[in-house]
UniProtKB/TrEMBL annotation:
Annotated protein name in UniProt: Chitinase 2
Gene this protein is translated from: CHT2_7
Annotated keywords: Glycosidase, Hydrolase
Species: Linderina macrospora
EC assignment: 3.2.1.14
Lineage: superkingdom: Eukaryota
Amino acid sequence: MKSYFGLLALLGSPLLAASAMDVKTGSGGLAVYWGQNSLSLQTGTNEMDLDKYCTQSNPPDIILLSFHHVYTSNPTINLAYHCEDTFSGSSMLNCTFMAPQIKTCQDKGIKILISMGGAAGSYSLGSSSVGSSYAQTVYDTFLGGTTTNRPFGDAVLDGVDLDIEGGGPTGYAAFSNKVHELSPSSLITGAPQCPYPDAQLSEALESGWFDIIFVQFYNNYCSAGTSSFNFDTWADWATSKSKNSAVKVYIGSPACAKCASSGYIGVDKLGQVYQDTLSKFSNVLGGVMLWDAGAAYYSTSGDTFADKLKKSYLGSSSGGGGGSSSAGSPSSSAESLSAESLSAESSSAESSSAASSSADSSSASESTSASTSATVPNDGSDTTGGGDDDEGVLTATSYFVVTINSPPSATSTAALNVRDGDQNGVPVAGLPIPGMAKRAAEPIMYTRVPRLHQFSHPDPPRH
């Protein structure tokens, strides 16, 4: 059956295992999200298979499979075009062919996690008892347990990531604690927005177990590289509030200009932010998280964004590849996805960034109890085939979320094109995507200005 959404780990050799970074205690780590194929509509090139990222000369240390986005009823996952067939009689995707790829990565000391949530899907836990119960399901489905219809077959993932974008914060503390109880060696990570406390992970951050958090320091007033960058707030959480006193905090950043609506700062500035933060918070800082793998490892010539970051700032090959380390010296420029083909120099991107920055700076002073709704007028005009072309301006109190509406209707707000930040109905790179819809965000303190990920299928976007 075709899915409409296009959407015991093996021990490595002693030599490779010895060279791998301990992500629970080390710094200089690199984590990337993989699976949503956002590269395809940015460059026309598909995201590579999972194992190809693990055999790079400067591979990541952690790869987060994105996403387990529908639970607890009829649970399934979404990996865009990478995996589309389901088990017979089940909604769960059958990606058992990926088991050897996962094991290849694990053989090299690279941790492979399943990321739960994302910006679209049908999920919530609802109560502590449901959270605790669903932890067993996740353990059986992805980790060391057993059940029918394990999507990755006999491959045992290294942990679970909580990228919770909706559905409320209830149940995730109980969930993370139960996963830790069932599998103490498994990594439990989270991806909160940088405004503290994060709206959807507030309870889990207060009383749940985390080994690492990948804070999204972009799309918000507290983005990396700005005067409001608030790593110190998260360092305080890690040292004085976290249930796990050894928790590590990663600096989350987009790997290309159009991987986020705001907050892209380029590899050299990101590296400088990392090194400056390391000098102040070496006991807390664990590394850098990038959205996403496709963008991070794409280049038409020369080093990729990830290559530059690892060689010049993080230290090369902590995951298990080759390459030399040249920490401290900026690498030469390359025609990479982030620096050239998706450059922020386009007027559309500049305008979007300016509008987002303005909205971000004002959001910090807004009351967390404030809530506004986005109106989406539709006059029926449609020149791109993806719905009305001139719906109103997207503000900082609204964000994009994918819904499935097939075929799209020009009179439905669930059939909008992807919009570029606060641009007045300007499609991103002129590429309409069926099934996009605007909806009101949470209180403005936790605004989710869109990351605007694009797909070869109408798949759930990241954050």
